[in-house]
Amino acid sequence: MKKKTMTTRYDVAEHLRTPEEMAAYLEACLEESNGDAAFIAKALGDIARAKGMAQVARDAGLSRESLYKALSGERSPGFDTVLKVVEALGLSLHAKAG
């Protein structure tokens, strides 16, 4: 009898375990985004799922539902939301000269 191979969808959130991994993931996404704010929102959503969406929502002062919508990658959230989420994730944004 041949065993059936089961596959599951890859979920990056399952592999973001440490703050360093989360920061490196966000940095890579920022570099690859080509100015696509929805792409960055999706990356923040991946990190938020890794940390626990309910806790991140509480820490950001947002409802869980609005956080899911904002970080779905289907639209660009407001910059105020991005800043709240970044802080709630324990991350920070930095600027450097080109």
Structure characterization notes:
The chain has 98 residues and is mainly α. It has one domain (17-88). It is 55% helix and 0% strand. The chain contains five helices and no strands. Helix 1 packs antiparallel against helix 2 and helix 3 (53-60) packs across helix 5 (79-88). The mean pLDDT is 92.
Put simply, the count of helices is 5
Poorly predicted spans: none
Topology pattern, helix = H, strand = E: HHHHH
User: What is the number of strand segments?
Assistant: 0
- Report the end-to-end length measured between terminal Cα atoms: 60 Å
Structural class: mainly alpha
The major sheet is characterized as: none
Q: Provide the domain count.
A: 1
The best one-word shape is: globular
The overall average pLDDT, rounded, is 92
Radius of gyration based on Cα positions: 15 Å
How much of the sequence is in beta strands? under 5%
State the share of residues found in helices, binned by percent: 55-70%
